[in-house]
Amino acid sequence: MCCVSSDNHCKLEPKANTKVICKRCKVMLGETVSSETTKFYMTEIIIQSSERSFPIIPRSQFVQSVITQCLVQLSSARSTFRFRIQGQDDKVYILLWLLNSDSLVIESLRNSKYIKKFPLLEDTLKADSSSAWSAIKVLYQPCIKSRNERLVSLWESDISVHPLTLPSATCLELLLILSRSNANLPSSLCHMNSFQVQKLSHRSTTCPSSHS
């Protein structure tokens, strides 16, 4: 709601709905910036030629690939390695620190115990029971439910930290992906100082775009 002054009084008028929602699945795809401009979230759409066949990409793999590409590009272009992952309401969900972008992960997932725990990841795990893939290595801190408020405040006031805005549901998806069990690793490799350590896959997918 927005406040509009009229005859020295303040009345409430409904604010225009700027969200772009998919009619079929009800997912938020982007938002209308102006009458001539629409902003789409890169994690929600794929833009490609209609002449090409449309690939079926597991959601978890797609989210990881898009976020990974974005972090690598931003760190290269702006020399920044710390990011605030936040929703469209500016609520911070994750503090993320990029350590390196050239990791190679060789992993057997056939007997993974976290398939039952995280159904979102099941399609990826079934498709790649044993694989090798490129990845980036990150440190992260979850910030939901008022966790790490002091650290969030410090990072918000630090101009070297770059904000990355995504739909709130996608922020939670990313947090779920980052929170996957590291049960097969010693605890010394799962944490660094107060941060948790994780890898995000950088597998080849059709490159998504933001488009107006």
Automatic annotation (TrEMBL):
Q: Reaction catalysed?
A: S-ubiquitinyl-[E2 ubiquitin-conjugating enzyme]-L-cysteine + [acceptor protein]-L-lysine = [E2 ubiquitin-conjugating enzyme]-L-cysteine + N(6)-ubiquitinyl-[acceptor protein]-L-lysine
Give the enzyme's EC designation.
Answer: 2.3.2.26
Q: Which domain of life is it from?
A: Eukaryota
Top enzyme class, one word, equals transferase
Q: Which Pfam families match?
A: HECT_2 (PF09814)
Q: What Gene Ontology terms describe what this protein does at the molecular function level? A: ubiquitin protein ligase activity
Record's function text: E3 ubiquitin-protein ligase which accepts ubiquitin from specific E2 ubiquitin-conjugating enzymes, and transfers it to substrates, generally promoting their degradation by the proteasome. Independently of its E3 ubiquitin-protein ligase activity, acts as an inhibitor of CPSF3 endonuclease activity by blocking CPSF3 active site.
Subunit structure of this entry? Interacts with UBE2C/UbcH10 (E2 ubiquitin-conjugating enzyme). In vitro, interacts with cyclin-B.
The name this protein goes by in its record: E3 ubiquitin-protein ligase E3D
Q: Which species does the entry assign this protein to?
A: Macaca mulatta
